[in-house]
Amino acid sequence: MSNVTLKPHYSTVVVGGGQAGLSASYYLGKAGVDHIVFEKKTAAHKWKSERWDAFCLVTPNWQCLLPDHPYDGADPHGFMVRDEIVGYLDRFIDKVKAPVLENTEVTLIERDGSGFRIETSAGVVGADAVILATSLYANPFIPRAAEKLPESILQLHTASYRNPEILPEGEVMVIGSGQSGCQIAEDLHLAGRRVHLVTGNAPRCARLYRGRDVVDWLTDIGQYDITIEHDGMNKKKHDTNHYLTGRDGGRDIDLRKFAQEGMELYGRMETVSGGKMIFRPNLAKNLDEADRVYNSINALIDRHIADRAIDAPPPSVYEPVWVPERETTELDLEAAGVTSVIWATGFTPDWSFVSLPIFDGTGYPVQRRGVTGIPGTYVLGLPWLWTWGSGRFLGMAKDAEYIVDDIVSFIGLNRETRKRVAAG
């Protein structure tokens, strides 16, 4: 891939060689659009270098529907583990044969007449259109409170965690109860490590309900096709994903059960002071809200089954198996025997190279179905770009195809405009 020869101008430049950028390249190639994909590292590298050993999908394999590349294994209702996911992506890379220039950083995108000027570590090129496919997960985020932790404590972000064996002996503090935080906490818990887990506002979801995987039910209901323009869904793009797991065939993650088994749970972290971690007294609230979402999703499935008279096992409502007797609001980490902290605090996007007025006050690109207000500028691969399926293997093809269709029309119009201007 990296032996692609750089040209002075392309019809379209794609920034990012992950599944989003590769999907865009697939449709650009199919439409005959001259293009190049710039990748700062290597194609799909995050799946290879920023996932822990026991990582697996949380949605069934059949939802892997990259362009012309559906799941090609023998277990459509299973959950691929990291190396299987990498294999699936490598086969997609081989199939697409995208013109990817790897180890090439884009440092500036700016307007240049009716097109764009793109500065990269390999040189400067021009383009009629650009697709920003770098996702929201460019840089691991660790709060400044980490600087106040004792130097004796090892600190890792989830992007660097691999397995329990890389951590020193002692207890482990995991900060964050989203999908990664909960799954890593479980990974450590199953390995016999004593775990402290700081919770947040992440909701949870059942794995199986009334005889089927909840994802199957939600697909039938049409949840993954709900657009961001549906009642109040626009705010969903900033929501934390529901926590559950595909590990060992798939199961719920119930933090209350972990607590019964000895895991220590806390409310949201406020700060670190004097070697102590300070927490909000909102653990009970966090657990209750996660369970409320869990039960509301199941109730949605109940209504679907009742409305269609589907023969299924009886409904149920989750009842807490454990409740906190008290809220711990501070913990001396060294005194508690905590020797490592894992920051499951997410990532931040990097749009610093984009010198185009496409962002809102929060730094999020303003777009509709990937099309921004600056003609010829597109974004791809974001959660809730258009539907709940956007940003996932499930919805990537539809989003990429829509954007490329728009680019084909735009490039045609843009060329005609330039011809008219040149003709006077």
UniProtKB/TrEMBL annotation:
Keyword annotations of the record: Oxidoreductase
Protein name (database record): Putative flavoprotein involved in K+ transport
Gene3D superfamilies: FAD/NAD(P)-binding domain (3.50.50.60)
GO molecular function, a single term: monooxygenase activity
Keyword Oxidoreductase: yes
Source species of the chain: Rhizobium hainanense
Keyword match Oxidoreductase: yes
InterPro entries per record: Auxin_biosynth/cation_transpt, CHP04046_FMN-dependent, FAD/NAD-bd_sf
